[in-house]
Structure formats: C-alpha cells, structure tokens
Amino acid sequence: MNSLKSILKEAAIKGVTEARARIFGHVLNPTGERSPHKILRKKLIGDKVLQWYPHDIKKDNPLIMARQEQERLAKNQTRKRRGKGPPKKGQGRQAQKRSKK
C-alpha cells in the first residue's frame, strides 16, 4: 500500500513539473545533463556592438583607401632599398636554421 502511494505521488509531481515547464516555457532537464539552452536563450548582442563603435568613413571612400595603399607600397619600397624588407621565400629564419644543422 505504501509503495503505491509513493508511485502515485512521484507521478503527480512529475506531471506538475512537466506542466509547469510547458506553461512557463522552461526546458525540462530531469537527468541534469549539460545543455546549451542557457547560452542559446541569451539575447544576441551583435547589433548593440555595431551601434557602439563609430562608422569608419575611411573604408567607404575609395580615394582614401587608394592613397593609403600607395603610402604602404612606397614605405615597403623604401624598406626594401635599405635591406629591411621581407626575405624571399625559402630564405627566412627557418631556412637559415635548417642550413646550419
């Protein structure tokens, strides 16, 4: 008799918890396993991040971008003339280490 009472009590509690989860939109996790639900229910913040940072006008204007590219290329050429440019392929640090061995 006692076991029947406990079985009915457990069934009633289980039914109530399932109904509560359905009504309030909760995710029922009776086993306690890890679930991504907590992370997925958070609001997405991408739009807020975009609004926070000011719009970069340089990226829109092709004349400014072209001038910056010309400055970069000129700087690279002067560095190459002084011998400070990047090494040719296969002549960098790793290649020098391999040749010493």
From TrEMBL:
A Pfam family: MRP-S33
UniProt keyword terms in alphabetical order: Mitochondrion, Ribonucleoprotein, Ribosomal protein
Source organism superkingdom: Eukaryota
InterPro entries attached to this UniProt entry: Ribosomal_mS33
Residue span of region Disordered: 61-101
GO cellular component: mitochondrion; ribonucleoprotein complex; ribosome
Residue spans of biased composition, Basic residues class: 77-101
Assigned protein family: Belongs to the mitochondrion-specific ribosomal protein mS33 family.
Protein name listed in UniProt: Small ribosomal subunit protein mS33
Main location: mitochondrion
Compartments reported by the entry: Mitochondrion
Annotated organism of origin: Kingdonia uniflora
